[in-house]
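Re: folding output
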Amino acid sequence: MKLHELSVKRPVAVVMAVLVFVVIGLYSLSMLKMALMPDMEMSMALVVTQYPNVGPEEVENLVTKNVESAISSVSGVDTISSQTSEGVSLVMVQFTNGTDMDEAVSDMEDRLDIYEAFLPAEAEDPMVMKMDTSAMAAAMMSISYEGYDLVQTRQYIEDNLENKLQSVDGVASVTVMGAPERQIEVVVDPQKLFGYRMSLGNVVASIAAQNQNLPAGNVIGGGKEMSVRTMGKLQNVKDIEMIPLTTTTGQVIYLRDIASVQDDYSDTASAARLNGENSISVSISAESDANMVELVNGIIDTLDKAVAQNPKLSYNMTMEQGSYIEESISSVAENAIVGAILAILILLLFLGSMRTSLIIGISMPISVITTFIGMFFSGMSLNVVSLGGLALGVGMLVDNSVVVLENVFRRRTVHGEDAKTAAIRGTGEMFPPVVASVLTTCIVYVPILFIDNMMSVMFKQLAFAIIFSQIASLLTTFLLIPMLSARVKNVEEQNQKLQFILKPFSRMMEYLYQKYEIALRYVLKKRKRFMLCVMGVFVLCIVILFNIGMTLIPSSDEGTISVTIELPKGSQFEETDALTRQIEEVISQNENVETVFSQIGSDTMSMITGSTSSNSSSITVTLKDKRRKSTNEVVNDLRAELSQISGAELSLESSNSMMGMSSDAVSFNFSATDEDALEEYVLAAEKILAGIDGVTETSTSLSDTQSEVRLYVDKNRAAMYGFTTAAINQAVHQVLSGTTASRFEDAGSEYDIVVLYPEDYAETVNELKALQIQAPTGRWVAVSDVADVVVEPGYATLTRVGQKRTISLSAMLYDTDMGTVTAKFNQELSRIPKPEGVMQESGGTYEIMIDAMKSLLLAIFLGILLMYMVMAAQFENVVQPLIILFTIPLAMIGVVLSLLIARMPLSVVSCIGILMLGGIIVNNAIVLIDFINIARKEKTEESRENILVHSGLARMRPILMTTLTSVLGFLPMALASGGGSAMMQPLAVVLLGGLSVGTFLTLFVIPVMYSWVDDKIKKHRRHK
């Protein structure tokens, strides 16, 4: 017994089977993890190596190049780039897509272990980090405690809150910043040090040796073996002052004789402020498999309980992903519901019966719920992409039901069959074309499943969501529709209460039928002229498409702005803090701004390395929910307002949860052997880039310079005093930066004991030249006696790409796109002479965009080929599928028109829409040609023109029904402007325009092409 026969004859069994799907589907929905985007493992790793207080060039030569050499032979490496600054080497490794990153990271660590022998002894061991989307902070908050200063507040958080936050399910790490840390400072008196003929190294060694508990062995006592320990740990700060020191003459003195011991706090290297008030910043990162919504809710619940227990404690969430994820998913779900309601209303207009409309309408939620079963067992999450695919497909879920139900009712009215017979035969007739249409809709996604670039990986969940929903729709159609349609008594009975709408609509449809028949007979007589016009419009649209601009993904309006402030290298923390306050005041005066949260001493590099940067700060601006302007518009306003502030480089951009996928910036990399010629060329290129409309905040790595004091050691003179280069550097470093001698324990915590010279000692270059350092022979000599002290310019950051020194050029974009800017830039740059050997590469997300576009273009062609194979198998004909495929270029006319009307560039998301469109648009043509073939077999005496016209008229109603339900399903998301729907908007716009125009043209072009191909076949047969 076939499925549709079972549906009519065993209704109770069918209802129970459907309820089983519903129950399991709802349970699967409750188990799906909520996330903003699908889980993506970025094929990227970072190697961070710290070499403290060493200049960029030395770090590059001694560390970066060795690290690059070590990892270059790791399997799967695609590109290697690096950034080297004072004391830090950061090497970024991009692997080919599909690389097993756990294995790759393990291989990198093994290679680096071998190369550690080539690294300087003072350099820390390289640290390898695998990058993924969870590297972003899940939540950031500002915490204050009434009556406590920052140090006390930080201590309270570390003692009472940090462990509770760490225990929240899904939390990977908790970072607290914004207050100075306690340290014990031993400030030596240089004159007394010289007088006792001691060096700073002697003091450091004595403190380290005295502050220890050491094992001494074992003894027997009372018949038992006991361990012996020598107890020397310092018990209080006063004990440090009494540490004995032995001079070179054998005299014993105490630390207090040559130094003062202060229980103090470290120099402020970082600070946090919320709306101008100092506070403690807490940043929380998530584990890679964490449910972000549950994690954020858990954090907020923990903080609320802490506040309830201690009212003096207060917090403010400055950034958290949970609410945005919930809002995004909610907005996508709302669009799906609105689309479903509009689709049902359209069915009501066409069918004129509430009962009949509900037969089809009930299949929609059942199909959606059943889809969640497939999503759960395939490991998908409930995110903007997967739910967006479901929302876009919700209008298509009724297409199969509409076609089947319309055919069932046609058999009852035209052939006079009874309800059960019509239900079985009518459904059976539509089984082949419906299955074929589902296969063509689904098979276009198969190529995506085999593409490994990052964007295709992200959209695999969209493909699976639509495939699962179509399979669910197919099952629902052949299980429910025959059973329910067999129980409708009068198919022509219309709802009397809706006649005020149904009658005008019926008259309009009659008018359309008449006009369509006239127009179709006309174009069948003027086939050549009509097709030339259509092809001319198609060619024009393709030309426009190539000039419409390109971007990676559209920016979503998250209501958050990131401001990065960078002062010249070497700027003091106080300067950075003062300028940041000035910028805060300007931002806070904007009427759209709700909160301004600043972190001084923080930049991208410092967040990766865990260090601080005195010349940098970052501001997170949260906008009001109810505001008159979009985030990008506010960004542009703030750029204009902040342009008057000088003394620092400012970068503003709307926050994007798609880490590393921003389409609001462009960058280019230049390299050459002649660095002087390269610098001039890059500066000229920067002027060209800055002159392009929509480009702002241009910068190059050339501007990242700083003056540097360099000690050129005279090895002969140094050798006379017993100095080596390393010994001179260590002596100078101890004076200028201090040295951590040991750790002081107090109340279960440890604090640094730092030995240093007075703060104002050796502040200037001349004082550095005169600085006295002790030689191994015991003699004191000035630095200028063993080295030439020279002030020279240098780069603060050195960039390498592909193991070659590179200069980068970057800019932010507003109201334009990457493709347009890149094309204009390359065109203008080609007009100026390029020095010999200069190489240029596009950086940032442009290469990702081009790679994704190429992959999707290949996927579209492969999808079309697979569709052809499916249709050829269905029709048992190799020619008719070509007629059907002709509808795809017709749809492209609608795609271009919709992008022009919406003023959108071509993006990866819209290319996914084109791929989807290929599988949808052919369905109408399949049903139409299948009907024509049946009609020609049944009405052999009828002329071909009449059969084509009558077939078009007969299938016009179901074609319009299925098209309008799909289009209205796309409409809410196409009109969406905020939240997660914004990312999916281009996809909906493409589908809406392509399906609308494509369907209209299909009703004319398919009959014309069918008649033309039929003539060619007949002519070919006559010539045989």
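--- second protein (sequence, then structure) ---
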Amino acid sequence: MVRFLTERPIAVSMVFLALALLGLVTTTSLPVSLMPDIDIPVITIRINAAGMPARQLENSVVKQLRTTLKEVSHVEEMKSEAHDGSAWIELRFRHGTPVNLASVEVNEKVDKAMNYLPRNIVRPEVVRASASDLPVFYLLITKPGNDYADQSFELSGNGAEFLQLSNFAGQVIRKRLEQLPEVALVDMSGLAYPEIRISPKPELLASNAISLSAIERALHDNNAELGNLLIRDGQYQYNVRFNTRLRNLDDVVNTPLNLGGRVVTLGDVAAVEQVPESPAGNVRFNGMPAVSLAIIKQSNARMATLEKELQVMLDHFRADYPGMEFHITRDQTQLLKYSISNLGQSLVIGGLLAFLAMFIFLREKRAPWLIGISIPVSLIISLLIFYLAGLSINIISLSGLVLGIGMMVDNSIIVIDNITQYRHRGDSLTDSCVNGANEVIRPLISSVLTTCAVFVPLIFMKGMAGALFFDQAMAVAIGLAVSLLVAITLLPMLYRLLYRGKPAGLVASHAALGSGEDAWYFHIYEKGLKWVLRNQAVTWAMVVGALIASGVLWYSMPFSRFPEMSHSETVLSIDWNEPVTLEENNRRVAGLIQALDPPPRYVVEEAGHQQYLLSTGETSGTAETRVFLRMDSPGELDKAIKRVSGIFGQRYPEAGFAFTDTDNLLNLAFGKEEAPLVARFSHPQPGDAGYMRMLERLQQEMEAEFPDQVTSRLISRNLVLLQTHPERLMFYRVNPAQLASEIRSAFNSNTVFTITGSDILIPVKIGHSYQSVYDVVQNLSVRNSEGEQIPLSGLVTVSNAHDLKTITAGRDNEYFAVELNLPGRQVSGAMSGIRNLSLVNDRGTGLTVAFGGASVASRQLLRELFLIIGISLLLLYFILAAQFESFRLPLIVLVEVPLDLFGVLLLLKLFGSGINLMSAIGIIVMAGIVINDSILKIDTINRMVLSGSPVLRAIMVAGRRRLKPILMTSITTILAISPFLFQGGMGAELQRPLSLAIIGGIGFGTLVSLFFIPLIYYRMVK
């Protein structure tokens, strides 16, 4: 086949030119995204139960739902959280579960559970997580005004002017953005809504001239829907409609009432006004009340097109609405451009460095250009296959191409080197091209198969890791397969054309690609190989020392799920652990931000409950907030984190706070990073008397056992309970429903009905002006069935209670979690220490403990990865045994892998990295790459031995013949991925541990391949 293609240069050129043109065309159609578009197997059930305490919600609703949801198939993990008035349950399925079918099954189970839930519970929502749900960026809209520098600014955004801004943002800005074809949804939060509030005159209530029940009854009577009446008049008929609906504020004000036989309007006996609704949460940008719009793109939209269209739209907004300010935050498009740009630079720089190395080694002008052609041709054809396979350009697939660059060059180097060696032996140009390519086809196919053999098992990795790195494995496999095709079809033909008419003796001089016996590194290598063969005991001692050093380095390495990545922004989650109001929450955050020097580039606060539709859970109360801090550099961010942590320690020691990364696909796919160790304590009867005292003691024991390492707090809250006395209600003839209505009105939460306005719902509420619970109990009176006023203090008893603010549970039961920030090597000892705590050992408490956290999850993930390494090595053995037709020779090659771990671990240690998902994948990749040199050398030695050469002569001659291609392939591979070590951005930082593992393994593996592999072959043959 090679001869057939070599003698048809026009046909081969046209085929590759056509493939290259198709590849260039498809680059404009390939989807570009930050991460692969993976199907995330997470479903969340959101429960809304306004007014229900967390403990009651857990016992009567959440527990029932969890019991029913246990029947759902393929659930890997279940977690729930109950708060006052709301709760959520998260189901995380095994990777590969059809999420559409799982969603149907979850809905069926929720419907089934509704039969066992309280009747006043609204059916829970079932929300399916998706990678496309991550907003491209957030658009914050504010009014021009002051910021943190001025303490006179409005904190809550609960004014009439902000109400107008909210309405305009929802009715105009949102709709105009959603008209863009690239935008799937604009999710909003921070909106203010109106309500009509009715406050009866206190003197009329005190004199019994009017009652809340009379006002409520009058509103219901005047808001009745009487329907239509059809009247016939001769040959005509008419529809008569009774206009009895209350449709606006004036209708409510003019509602008639009977006041002692006299007809008055509601406005005569009560203050009726339309005011902003009391917010359960708000959004602020740099201290100013803001409306937040999360822009979510269509799954098939190109990020660059969306960014361009949105920028044009924002320019129009700024010109058309000068009374508003528009701010872009959490911009994923900038992160995408930065990461993709850095990876593109790594691709170019790595290719140029590899190309430069070939010029230095080859000392000839034509051959490097031949090898250099293989890089862009292989890349362009690879992009064509990307398009046909439905892959996208993202930081994972691009990093796979960068990894493949060095390996792409390897195939071309070996083919060109072998062709040139045949020319030096005196063969004709055509015969050299044919024989040189044919001779290395088998080892090249073996090297490609062995490399793919370590990547393919990554595709079958369980969980989201396998799904996320599918693109990387496919990119490397595609790049290698294409480069092999280019090396054995295109390059021999181009070599024949380029060297036509040039005498064989002048091809490259003897120092170029021939024997190269006068090159300095050949002499060094021969001396080194002779020393190894003469001093075998010392060599074996050095090998054993390397293995022992590998064990020591492995034990000293920190474990984590993902490598640390530098950030200039973070999310500060705060729970003040006090029943503070929303305004006080905002005021405290303002004080924190003002203390930062230098000031942040921007600050976004999301305090209390947020209104985002696609929020899968994590509901918050008025004492909780999330603060998004963006600084100018990672160093400034570290300084800000230390400053804020110090303020909490001084001013708010009881508050719970944590700094986390901003939302990204890794968090969505794998779940948010937990503390290194999480101890989950379970009790058979949570919530019973003494439960909170037991948890307080447990928290104290944990802090005493692990000083300065417990990062979580016992977040609780005090409850005021109003307990009614049924016998007193019966004695005083008070209707319980009337009592509940009066109490709701006292706290301004009695919604009589809702008016449907222009695209918004306006609740009509009856309320009082009482300031506290005790004020209500002492001053409120309830009218009984005989019209008598009965003091509320005689009907209810006020008491206090103490309970958890958030109740967390797993698949089986409720638990209390204590988080510890421990080095990975101390986790096992910490587990033993926790099991020895007095409360855990006290059988009377019934307390049990289970463990989780990032270290535990990382160890499980790494165990799976090293199982994959074992499978990969087994596949390598099968491939090599088939190539060499031997059961012993593959063992010579595979023994190199454990030796090369010394180079991997040493380089990771020197660069301050550790063992994580990326470095473990780097070890797998290294195992597939590094043995290629040994395969080539063993194949050459074996050929010479089978042809009758003595073993020592075969080792020395094969070493000289394969030294230059081995050095070149190793150096070009290292140079191709070395830009990862110096580039910034999420893509490069994510791949840096992988690159370190490959570079360290190949660097040390080259020495093993050149010196130790021949020694093993010699000992095995002897």
